[in-house]
Design brief:
This protein has about 70 residues and is an all-alpha fold. It has one domain (about 1-60). Helix content is about 70%, strand content about 0%. The chain is globular. The termini are far apart. The model has no long low-confidence stretch (mean pLDDT about 65).
Length: about 70
């Protein structure tokens, strides 16, 4: 499980660097979050496991301005 989450975090970081994302808006709707997660998946050419998606969602919610 930790391996999948770690891979997802690396995928997210690469995506952020590619899109030049500095901060995460805290007003995203659930649908917008799913779009972001889908973009991360497509950009990195991988599939996301459900628990890894939940972990990333929590990480993004608590990473204000990161």
């Amino acid at each position: 499980m930790l391996n999948a989450v770690a891979k997802l975090m690396i995928a997210w970081q690469k995506y952020r660097e590619h899109k030049k994302i500095k901060t995460i808006p805290l007003t995203l709707t659930s649908l917008e979050w799913l779009t972001v997660l889908n973009d991360v998946t497509v950009f990195n050419g991988s599939t996301l496991e459900p628990y890894a998606v939940r972990a990333l969602f929590l990480y993004l919610n608590f990473s204000i301005g990161y």
